[in-house]
Automatic annotation (TrEMBL):
Range of residues in the leader sequence: 1-22
UniProt-listed InterPro entries: N1-like, Ribonuclease/ribotoxin
Keywords: Hydrolase, Nuclease, Signal
The species this protein was found in: Gallionella capsiferriformans (strain ES-2)
Recorded GO MF terms: hydrolase activity; RNA binding; RNA endonuclease activity
Record carries keyword Secreted: no
Keyword Nuclease among record annotations: yes
SUPFAM superfamilies: Microbial ribonucleases
Protein name listed in UniProt: Guanine-specific ribonuclease N1 and T1
Amino acid sequence: MFRMLQLWLILMAFCLPTEAHSHHPVTADVAVITVADLPVEARATLRAIRQGGPFDYDRDGVVFGNYERVLPKQTRGYYHEYTVKTPGVRNRGARRIITGVPGEYYYSADHYQSFNRIRE
């Protein structure tokens, strides 16, 4: 009986969709958030991005690789990341805004585990 259960579990693993095998989805099903619903610090970061700076962190503006594959697939260099300050945190924290083409912004409150498309 145990052997049959093992075989059944192995077979089921091969029948599951690819997304079930990875921690992150392969396609980008990104929720939407309005600017008004962003934390005040994210709104400040968004303003700085639109104005071209200044930025508080050296890493602001670096290429975001989208290795988590949560955002739509694009060529390397398409996305850039910016830090959203987190009150009470001494390092960069987990919050980011990712940019694509002008006007394309994404917010992550959990260090790229999930994203919300920012609707203006």
